[in-house]
Amino acid sequence: MADNFTRRDFIKTLSLGAAAIAMPRSAGAAEKSSKPNIIMILTDDQGYGDLSSYGAKDLKTPHTDALMSAGVRMDNFYANCPVCSPTRAALLTGRYPDLVGVPGVIRTYKRSNWGHMTAEATLLPKLLKPAGYHAAIVGKWHLGLTAPNTPIPRGFDHFHGYLGDMMDDYYKHRRHGINYMTLGQKTIDPKGHATDLFTQWAIDYLKQRAERPQQPFFLYLAYNAPHTPIQPPKDWLKKVKDREKGISDKRAKLVALIEHLDDGIGKVIAALKKNKQADNTLIIFTSDNGGQGNVGANNGGLKGAKQQMDEGGIRVPTCAVWPGKIKPGTKFDQVAMTMDLFPTICQAAGAKIAHKIDGVGLLDGLLGRKFEIPERYLFWMRLEGGGYKGKIYHAVRHKQYKLTQNRQNEKMKLYDLEKDPGERKPLGEDHEAYKRLSDALARHIAQADKIPWQRPGK
Asked: Do residues 349 and 342 touch, judged by C-beta distance below 8 A?
């Protein structure tokens, strides 16, 4: 880690004990905002088992693991979709993605584009700014390639990152030959590995905000790692191969890409400490969907992978750290989704939500207070082209029961996740939950069908 910042220092900084909390404020602290800074870290295609704290034996992720132990870990947390764009839409709107026009992946060409965020959708920065926040995104946007569906027109004060979906090369930063790297609303052409660039740009932003401690900030740090292409720096790959004897080339590349990502996260946290921002910052970490099976991802023994509605495609490693507020080493075991982070962040920021959302604020539960998520049905859907030929597929969960499919023409299967977490033994269609969940899903589909997912007239 940068600045000789060890894992012990990291945990000490984030997991403030009673004595540390009681210490008097340092000189100049009175000028700091009483509201927390908020950093939302989103990784891309990180599987449920691709952290050493989640059971990986061939992978070392000390900095992310330190986050997991320094706050509350959420082991029953789900992405809103098994692919990128819809989950990002849910995070930034607090709504089911198909209800804001993003049922599938937003891509470079119209023929393969399956989403267009509605003008009516209210994004998180629009609520945080009246609460006094400066809002920034560093990294991958993936919710639109042209204004008004780019970060600045949608409410962010600062954008330094990548507008597109995947990069064809981590060093060249192109997709189909087009450069989507952007600062503000201007195309740029930086040099270096994308993970290193996003890390440094986040550090630069934190340094800038340290000069204005009276204003809290929201930083959405969206890495594109470990999404394909699996392209770690050569020295990181060599380190993994030297350490993990017998590891396959495919797995070694993914492990190296994740370890390089973890190192970047560590450098960002080190910058927080250096800037004296760590003691007043809420950090949330999660992934946009499960790991991709054909590149060697580890989904923690869960069935399925990215693109699938099985648990391995949508269940993701998640935690929240807030020194002096969230007790270190705790767990929040209730079932939650990406869209719930929208109102949770608003709760922490004191931002008011005056419009309809689908997410539920989790802050009381994360803080260890008595809290129960209201009983609800949870829905997943994906509309996609390619081999899916523009067809949609779904999943729905209520309590322990989950009704799911991985292709539109596949018969839906019902599982009891309490008794069968591996989704190996489908229950019959005569089970009372089968019709009940089917009916709930039908009502959701009818609601979503009213929302256009392509730009009118295009």
From this structure: no
As a whole number of angstroms, the distance between CA 76 and CA 391 comes to 28
How many angstroms separate the CA atoms of 358 and 344, rounded?
A: 12
Mean pLDDT, rounded, for 313-332: 98
Q: Where are the domains of the chain?
A: 34-375, 378-448
Residue 23 has pLDDT above 60, yes or no: no
Rounded-to-integer distance, Cα 43 and Cα 268, Å: 14
Are 227 and 145 contacting, i.e. CB atoms less than 8 angstroms apart? no
Q: Which residues are designated catalytic? A: 84, 142
Cα dihedral 154, 158, 161, 166 in deg (nearest 10): -20
Cα separation, 194 vs 233, in Å, equals: 10
Identify the CATH homologous superfamily for domain 34-375: Alkaline Phosphatase, subunit A (3.40.720.10)
Burial 278-311 (b: 16+ CB within 10 A, else e): bbbbbbbbbbbbbbbbebbbbbbebbbbbbbbbb
pLDDT at residue 389, as a whole number: 84
pLDDT tens per residue across span 200-234: 999 999 999 999 999 999 999 999 999 999 999 99
The model's pTM is 0.93
User: Which DSSP helix (H) or strand (E) runs through 432?
Assistant: helix 432-448
